[in-house]
Amino acid sequence: MIDPVIQQLKGKLIVSCQAYMGEPLRHPETMAQMARACELGGAGGIRCQGLSDISAIKGRTEVPVIGIWKEGHEGVYITPTLRHARACVAAGADIVAVDATDRPRPDGKTLEDTVRPLKEEGVLVMADCATIEDIRHAFAIGCDIASTTLSHPGAAIDCGMADGPDVALMRQATTEFPDKPVICEGRVHTPADAKAAMDAGAWAVVVGTAITHPTSITSWFVEAIEG
């Protein structure tokens, strides 16, 4: 059975509302306003980072909120431990996304060690994956959603307009798991990119930089004009 919260995301655009450290928009109220604006534009879900942002956005929007807590800049830093995941739930996240790669985790636990207690506590878990092996493992241990978030170099960091989403991985995953929620995330920078992901079978598509990161969007136009 697919949880109703996840079912609500099917065929929808999920907007990632995040601002990086030191940026002018890095403030919970600003992100909450951004999220509400995206909801009014038709977004079916919001992905956000940090406990204050999760709480502020959950209080301002009515669509499902996918929460993460980034700590550090290398290795496993997207909701890296069970403590981080539980804190996201306490802040109001409807779904918690975790790094689902096989890299060492800062607390020394395995991904399964993190996911198992969350599922016992009734938490919906989204697995941020890099490979088809990650996706297979994520579903095998009970994750509710798998995504292609980490399937490209520079994942979770602005990496410009290059290459587009990992449609090949999306198509492979949805072929293997036709009845599972597999979400496309990463380098979706145009409506055509989003449509390509949906055509490949994506349950939903996450767009962040191209909607909510004006510094990057401005730089794309500047490069085109000056380049």
UniProtKB/TrEMBL annotation:
Name the SUPFAM superfamilies for this protein: Ribulose-phoshate binding barrel
Q: Which GO terms describe its biological process?
A: carbohydrate metabolic process; N-acetylmannosamine catabolic process; N-acetylneuraminate catabolic process
Record-level Gene Ontology MF annotations: N-acylglucosamine-6-phosphate 2-epimerase activity
* Known pathway: Amino-sugar metabolism; N-acetylneuraminate degradation; D-fructose 6-phosphate from N-acetylneuraminate: step 3/5
Q: What class of enzyme is it?
A: isomerase
InterPro entries hit by this protein: Aldolase_TIM, NanE, RibuloseP-bd_barrel
One Pfam family from the UniProt entry?
Answer: NanE
Keyword set for this entry?
Carbohydrate metabolism, Isomerase
Concerning NCBIfam families, the annotation shows: PRK01130.1 (NF002231)
What functional role does this protein have?
A: Converts N-acetylmannosamine-6-phosphate (ManNAc-6-P) to N-acetylglucosamine-6-phosphate (GlcNAc-6-P).
Please report which protein family the annotation says this sequence is part of.
Belongs to the NanE family.
Q: What is this protein called?
A: Putative N-acetylmannosamine-6-phosphate 2-epimerase
Lineage of the species this protein comes from: Bacteria, Bacillati, Actinomycetota, Coriobacteriia, Eggerthellales
> Which gene specifies this protein's sequence?
nanE
